[in-house]
Amino acid sequence: MFKVLFVCTGNTCRSPMAEVLFRARIVKNQLEDTITVSSAGLSAMPGSRASKNSCLAMQTSGLRLDNHLARQVTGDCIASADLVLTMTKGHKIAILNGAGQAEGKVFTLPEYAGERVDVIDPFGGNEAVYQDCAKSIQKYLEKIWPKVVALSAKKL
């Protein structure tokens, strides 16, 4: 099983949206037995719900985040992941500083998609800000999908 972990700050906005969008892609391509996805936050309050506007943004895509509960990034979840995709360069640096053995499997989502930007934090913004964030995440997920599928096939 190839394990992908998305990481943001609080695990209530960006990484849960990335997780649910990526999971939908896995299901659509019938790769549930090959690829698994989860999310966590560097400063998460474990058990916190996804933000209201994250839930609304995902409903637009026909997806649900109602049952999401935030979780804190741990050394174990970094170690068990095959690919760790963060939302910002700061998140990536924090993970690598805390888990040096993760070198080579931690990237920002945009970096893995070939771009040099961060996924802007929508926290505190209105629904339109969250929709824009979700669209940018979706764009990056489309770009990385072939790479993830290829890596998962190599792991089998």
Mean pLDDT: 96
CATH topology: Rossmann fold
The CATH class designation is Alpha Beta
Tell me the series of helices and strands, N- to C-terminal: EHEHHEHEHH
Number of beta-strand segments: 4
| Total individual domains | 1
- Name the structural class: alpha/beta
- Please list the strands of the largest sheet in the order they lie side by side: 2-1-3-4
The gyration radius over C-alpha positions equals 14 Å
The proportion of residues in beta strands is 5-15%
**Number of continuous helical runs:** 6
Residue share in helix: 40-55%
The CATH H-level superfamily is: Response regulator
Are there runs of 5+ residues with pLDDT below 50, and where? none
> Alpha-carbon distance between the termini?
7 Å
- Biggest sheet descriptor: 4 strands, parallel
**CATH architecture group name:** 3-Layer(aba) Sandwich
Shape: globular
Give a concise summary.
With 156 residues, the chain is of the alpha/beta class. It has helices spanning 14-28, 52-60, 75-80, 89-98, 109-112, 127-155; strands spanning 2-8, 35-41, 83-86, 106-108. The protein has a single domain (2-150), classed as Rossmann fold (3-Layer(aba) Sandwich), CATH 3.40.50.2300.
Helix-strand layout with pairing:
Blueprint (H helix, E strand, L loop, with lengths): L1 E7 L5 H15 L6 E7 L10 H9 L14 H6 L2 E4 L2 H10 L7 E3 H4 L14 H29 L1
Parallel strand pairs: 1-2, 1-3, 3-4
